[in-house]
Design a protein that fits this description.
- The longest helix is centred in the last third of the chain and has 27 residues.
- This protein is mainly alpha-helical.
- It has two domains: 97 residues, Cytochrome C biogenesis protein (Helicase, Ruva Protein, domain 3), CATH 1.10.8.640; 41 residues, no CATH class.
- Helix content is 66%, strand content 0%.
- The chain has six helices and no strands.
Length: 158
């Protein structure tokens, strides 16, 4: 019973720590006075990738670059930019890789479609290979002369 209680408390403590980690990333001096702008900044920061941490948003990351990007987002919002303008500004400066959820465009259509194309090609190869095995190749019969020559070769070995 004691192990169960300790296990539950450990899990609860771990979950609490994981829930509070994103709160710790944004420094108090970064928070905007206007709660509406701050909410927009948080939403935008959750969509942008930290270039140092790779798969973390800048809202969750403690890296200096993430801090700089959070400040940049807040500065653009204070200047009156819309959410789309802020995202466009950051993408223009850092490339589309900065987006945690990349846009679907002609540039990355091959990347998105490659798995489907490879599955289709693999399926066609499997089906054609199975059909070839099913029908089998044409069985070639040996002529009398070829049989005689083969028997000679086999008898010479013995």
């Amino acid at each position: 019973m004691r192990r169960l209680i300790i296990g539950v408390l450990t899990a609860a403590f771990g979950l609490l720590n994981m829930a509070l980690l994103p709160v710790l990333a944004v420094q108090p001096d970064e928070i905007l006075d206007d709660p509406v702008l701050e909410e927009r900044a948080r939403e935008l920061s959750a969509e942008l990738r930290c270039m140092v941490c790779q798969n973390q948003s800048i809202d969750d990351s403690d890296a200096e670059l993430a801090r700089d990007l959070r400040i940049l987002v807040r500065d653009r919002l204070k200047a009156g930019d819309s959410n789309g303008e802020v995202i466009a500004y950051v993408v223009d400066r850092y490339g589309e890789f900065v987006l945690l959820k990349p846009r679907f465009s002609y540039r990355n259509a091959l990347l998105w479609g490659a798995p489907v194309i490879l599955l289709l090609v693999g399926g066609v190869l499997i089906v054609t290979g199975a059909r070839r095995k099913k029908t089998g190749g044409a069985v070639l019969r040996l002529s009398a002369e070829e049989k005689k020559r083969l028997d000679q070769i086999l008898n010479d070995r013995e």
